[in-house]
Each structure stands twice: as C-alpha cells, then as structure tokens.
Design brief:
By secondary structure, this protein is of the alpha+beta class. It folds into 2 domains: 5-124, no CATH class; 129-199, SH3 type barrels (Roll), CATH 2.30.30. Helices cover 22% and strands 26% of the residues. It has a 5-stranded mixed beta sheet, with helices on one face. Strands 7-8-9 form a 3-stranded antiparallel beta sheet, with no helix packed on it. Helix 1 crosses helix 2 (43-57) and helix 1 crosses helix 3.
Amino acid sequence: MGNRGLIVFKDEKIAIYLHWNGGRDSVEAFLEYAKIKRFRSDNYGVARLCQVIGNYVGGTLSLGLEPIIDKHIPNLGDNGAYIVDDFNITDRLHYENPEQNSYSLLDMLIEIDKKQPQELQLTEGFLRSKEIKYEDLKIGDVVYYYEDGIYNKHKIIGVGDSDWLNGRNVIGKFYIDRWNSNKAKTNVNNYLLDDKYRVA
C-alpha cells in the first residue's frame, strides 16, 4: 500500500519513485520548487530534486530510483507515471483515477522549503512575495535577486545610461545595490536583466 508515483524525465534512464507523496499536488510542488531554484534539467538537476524530496519525506522507503530500460515505463499503480520535460509534466501513463488536489501549491512549496537546510531555504517571505513584470518595477523596490542557488534581497537604486557595459546594452535598465553601491551603475552584475522579479 502507498500513494505511489513515478517521475520519469525525458531522455534520462532513471526515474524518481515516490511511495507516499506521489499525488499530483505533491509532484507539481516538487517540480515547481526545482524550477524556482533553477535546477538544471539534466541528471544533475534530477539529483538535486532527489535531494529536495529526500529532505522533505525523510528516511525509510519513501523515496527511491527506478531504472528505465529500453524506454519501458513500469506500472507501479496508484498515481501512475508523470512524464516530465524541463520540470514540467507533459504526459501521464498508467493512471485513470481522479487527480489528487488536496493541497495548494503555495502551501506545499512552503512545507517543502521548511524541510531544506536553513542556508538553502527560499523562505516563506520569498514564496509569498509577488512576482511582477520588469516594466512594473520602480526605483526603491526591493527585489529578490538570484545568486548561486539562493535569492537575496536588493534595492533598485537607479537606471543605467550606458549603451554598452561589458558587452551588454544597459541603457534604461534598472540596477541594484548588489556590488559597490557608490559605483553600482558601472558594474554589469548589478543590472536586472530578467523579464520578471519577485518584490519583497
């Protein structure tokens, strides 16, 4: 008995086996957490996802690996197999029951995060923060900026006026107080270049 599910990654020869957290609400939360953490979508990213899931479910036989031989996806029952590409569910196999949807994505993400090592946690404040489009940002906003696996808070302090800075066109782009605040506009690593950011 269990609440089993299998996460099968495109082009990989091994899948993640979940014994108790195989429902869609759990699986989607695990995958979303991986996307937020910007895990690579290869075997290294799969290993990092296993680490996150293992921290969440703890010991015993709740988490395992299942070999995929000649593209044969085993039927383990319960929630079937989730076919995943770039941490998005693209298909399902061996499943005909109603989807599990008992928990909200945000609540699941917060609970998963709490079980991670403190220095790697996203924090509840980050997860509850609003993600807004770049064009809706303004000077004075405090944004979460991705740095080496974590998100740190930085304040937007100005707008670039240089056509090119270290090979990047930063004219009209916001910059933050990340490096050398007194000369922040001259360091390309201070500029916000993504399409969306979470605002604290």
